Amino acid sequence: MKKVVIVHGLGQTPNDWKQVIEQLDESNEVICPDLFSLVDKQKLSFETLAQSFEFYCSKFDQPIILVGLSLGAVLALEYANRHPGQVDSLIIIAAPYQMPKKLLKFQNMVYHLMPSKSFSKIKMTKKEMISLCQSMMDLDYSDQLKEIGCPTLVLCGSKDKANYSSCLRISKEIPNSKFSEISFASHEVNKDNPQKTAELINAFLGQDKLKGF
After folding, report:
1. What is the pLDDT, as a whole number, of residue 122?
2. Which of 43, 126, 145, 194 is the least crowded, having the fewest Cβ atoms under 10 Å away?
3. Which CATH number fits domain 3-97+140-210: 3.30.710.10, 3.40.50.300, 3.40.50.1820, 3.10.290.10?
4. Is 89 within 8 Å of 62 (Cβ atoms)?
5. How much of the chain exceeds pLDDT 70, in percent?
6. In this structure, how many other beta carbons lie within 10 angstroms of the beta carbon of residue 105?
7. What is the pLDDT of residues 154-205, one digit of tens each?
8. Closest by alpha carbon to 131, among 113, 99, 107, 114?
9. CB within 8 Å of 167: residues ≥ 6 apart
10. Which residues of 151-178 are buried (b: 16+ CB within 10 A; e: fewer)?
């Protein structure tokens, strides 16, 4: 049985993946942890979040399959770079390989203007959200993508203009990878088109140990 760890995006919770998980092959064990319950939010940054996720994954006694969306995809790339032997395969969704600084700065300006209650759904405060985004400004995986050796599927919504070209670049740079588009979906493919998202994940995982895809 393969162990599949789904890493949700910023602004999402594990519940946002429910419709996808319900359609995934039952022969796999699927887990979707709440990222922000893993970390001490008083010290929240990308590095502390990555360390907490690393500790979470260390309890598994077999290589895992990582499925990450947006922030979750960046964490999956980070983990795969730090622990290549612990990752069986990757599914990277709507990921920037280099953080768009201008967009993050604009996003933080918007967060400053939003009421604090807007962040209650994801169990974060406005201050924590802004701090996390600030800590991600300088992330850049341009030189690390070619070092990822495991089979990788890169997905992006057909309407996700902000990340489409980045996903194409990721699929070209990772040696053993391919790209697929999810139609009728923007950034949150798991919510916009859960059926197609699950279909592509199942197809990728169902291949003979992902050889020769």
Report:
1. 73
2. 43
3. 3.40.50.1820
4. no
5. 97
6. 12
7. 999 999 999 999 999 999 999 999 999 999 999 999 999 999 999 999 999 9
8. 107
9. 92, 94, 95, 154, 155, 156, 179
10. bbbbbbbebbeebbebbebbbebbeebe
